[in-house]
Every structure is written in structure tokens, then in C-alpha cells.
Amino acid sequence: MYSTKSSKNAQDFLKRIYFLYKAKIENLQTDNGSEFMGYFEKSIQALPQTIQRYFSRPRTPKDNSIDERFNRTLEEEFIQLGNFTPDLDIFNKRLTKWLVEYNFNRPHQSLGYQTSVEFHFEHHKVLPIYPSSTISCFLIHTML
């Protein structure tokens, strides 16, 4: 979580995702918000690899159905259960712990009761956290 929606914070998140995925980002989808211009756009262009960028259409949540469903899960199973705090350090530590549980320990019915990580390594098609066959920075709009 960041304190504001800004291109500087979106840039920071992109750098973190780029590091986490060891520079293996194939494409990126964002909305048309100003936070995904400026510093963020310059960071994409400065990366040593070409990343295909896609923009979701305005007021079309079906373009991001996987993201929207994950946002709902995050809201219902994390935030509404008392994990929100305006203290960024505490919130981000709680969120990290929850994401580890969600991806590494929790079996998912839609994945045949495997964890996201187990399913990923068994099928080599899906990345942890969301059921998509490409790498994207889906959490950018979730975290901002």
C-alpha cells in the first residue's frame, strides 16, 4: 500500500515487481490513470527489455476480471477482517504475510485444492496469485 496514487509510487511498485520476477515481465496492463504516466512510463521505457503495454478500457471491469476478483478477495478476506491500518509499515507487513499464506499455504478450490504455487509448478502455466498465463503487474492498481 502507498499513501497516495502517484506516478512516483507506481514507478516504485514497478521496480519492485521487476526485481521480484527477475526481469521476466512479458506484458503489463494498467488503466489510464495519471499514476501510470510520468515517472512510471519513463521507467517502463528505461527497462533493458521491451514490455508490451496494454490499457484497459474505461468503465470495463471485465477487461480486468481476474484483478477485480482478487481485489474482492483481498477486501473480504483481509481488509474486512480487521487488517487495515493507516500505518503503511504495519499494513504492508500484514499484507505480505497474508499473500504468503494465500499463495503458499492455502488450497484453492479452483486449482483442484492445490496452493497457487503448487499449481504453478505442476502446470507451468499459471503464476502465483492469479490465474493468468502471462506476467503482469496486476497489483499496481490494487496497491495504490
Summary keywords:
globular; mainly alpha; 144 residues; disordered C terminus
Query: Biggest sheet: strands side by side, in what order?
Result: 1-2
The best one-word shape is: globular
Largest pleated sheet: 2 strands, parallel
How big a fraction of the residues is strand? 5-15%
Count of helix runs: 6
Oligomeric state of the chains? single chain
Order of helices and strands: HEHEHHHH
Query: How many β strands by DSSP?
Result: 2
CATH architecture: 2-Layer Sandwich
- Percent of residues in helices comes to 40-55%
As a whole number of angstroms, the C-alpha radius of gyration is 15 Å
What is the CATH topology?
A: Nucleotidyltransferase, domain 5
Gist of the model:
The protein is mostly helical. It has helices at 7-20, 38-46, 65-83, 88-105, 116-123, 139-143, and strands at 27-30, 52-55.
Written account of the structure:
The chain has 144 residues and is mainly alpha-helical. It has a single domain (7-143), classed as Ribonuclease H-like superfamily/Ribonuclease H (Nucleotidyltransferase, domain 5, 2-Layer Sandwich). Helix content is 51%, strand content 6%. It has helices spanning 7-20, 38-46, 65-83, 88-105, 116-123, 139-143; strands spanning 27-30, 52-55. It has a two-stranded parallel ribbon with strand order 1-2. Helix 1 runs parallel beside helix 2 (38-46). The relative contact order is 0.18.
Give a topology summary.
Layout (H helix, E strand, L loop, with lengths): L6 H14 L6 E4 L7 H9 L5 E4 L9 H19 L4 H18 L10 H8 L15 H5 L1
Parallel strand pairs: 1-2
Helix pairs in contact: 1-2
